[in-house]
Amino acid sequence: MKTLVWVEHDGGSVKDATLATVTAASKLGEVHLIVAGHGVDGVAQAAAKIAGVGKVHVADDAAYANALAENVAPLIAQLMGHHDAFLAPSTTTGKNIAPRVAALIDVMQISDILSVEGPDSFTRPIYAGNAIATVKTSDKKLVLTVRTTAFEKAAAEGGSGAVEAVAATGDAAKSRFVGAEKAESARPELTSAKIIVSGGRALGSEEQFHALIDPLADKLGAAVGASRAAVDAGYAPNDYQVGQTGKIVAPEVYVAVGISGAIQHLAGMKDSKVIVAINKDEDAPIFQVADIGLVGDLFTVVPELTEKV
Ligand SMILES: Cc1cc2nc3c(=O)[nH]c(=O)nc-3n(C[C@H](O)[C@H](O)[C@H](O)COP(=O)(O)OP(=O)(O)OC[C@H]3O[C@@H](n4cnc5c(N)ncnc54)[C@H](O)[C@@H]3O)c2cc1C
């Protein structure tokens, strides 16, 4: 089977989510990549070095500069003429592109796969991860999004894929890039961080969130996350949200501060290797998944912990 993997990049380097997606694709067959963007020579060269990659298709055109799904999907649909499976990471961009590809080539998308059971069957979470379904498709071509925390990352070095330019399909003129407001941070990216410190509604305000969570995260070299309640209350930006409707993370250590452990939050972090929970309520559901639990008032405990780290 010939697979095509969407390369998620920032214009300069390949994002880690791509590496896990390559591993998923390698379980199906030959791995080809698609790098779409503008001025993406460096990305294509880096992508070609990923272990196990056979070919890197490069579509370098202004129409792909901001990975607008409306422009990228027709390009991928065209490449699916000679590929059997398209795989994208379950990231915001991947989830924007893949369903459009599925619609264009008239197949069903299988979302958020956790494992490859065979050439046409996969496991995926349902009910916010409380049950795992095995799904089998009779479609001739596959469109899959991949839960990247469920697959090991392919080695970023060691491959020698052939880089091949592909013709651009142009601007679909259905959408226009207006601008991007990016939260600049020196901290690691949430989905690839080894340690995450997340804050919940209990922080009480944006000021307190940053005053307590940021110093602990900085001492630990951690990324900062948040519950949806904290995001909805404006304590933390939207892209900090961990959970069913936020980011899915599985760091080495996840520190949940003042987070109750609602099922939708657990759906995004319960695969973390070590979970540390700080909560004043000893019956909080977060303690059911925590490896280390600290019952106490976060306003006392967190500054003390930060000082001692
Ligand atoms: C469709 C849907 C999707 C959702 N998606 C997500 C999602 O992606 N991510 C997500 O997080 N939620 C999500 N939610 C919301 C989720 O159900 C919860 O409402 C949310 O996670 C609660 O956030 P919280 O734990 O910060 O707040 P709360 O539930 O209010 O918990 C606050 C916790 O802090 C503790 N606390 C209070 N004061 C202190 C103190 N001084 N010291 C120590 N501990 C203290 C309390 O004991 C409590 O356990 C979703 C809900 C729905 C319906």
TrEMBL record:
Single biological process term from Gene Ontology: fatty acid beta-oxidation using acyl-CoA dehydrogenase
Obligatory cofactor(s): FAD
Domain Electron transfer flavoprotein alpha/beta-subunit N-terminal positions: 3-181
Residues that hold FAD according to the record: 201, 227-228, 241-245, 258-265, 279
Cofactor details (free text): Binds 1 FAD per dimer.
Function text: The electron transfer flavoprotein serves as a specific electron acceptor for other dehydrogenases. It transfers the electrons to the main respiratory chain via ETF-ubiquinone oxidoreductase (ETF dehydrogenase).
Membership in a protein family: Belongs to the ETF alpha-subunit/FixB family.
Name this polypeptide is given: Electron transfer flavoprotein subunit alpha
Native organism: Sphingomonas sanguinis
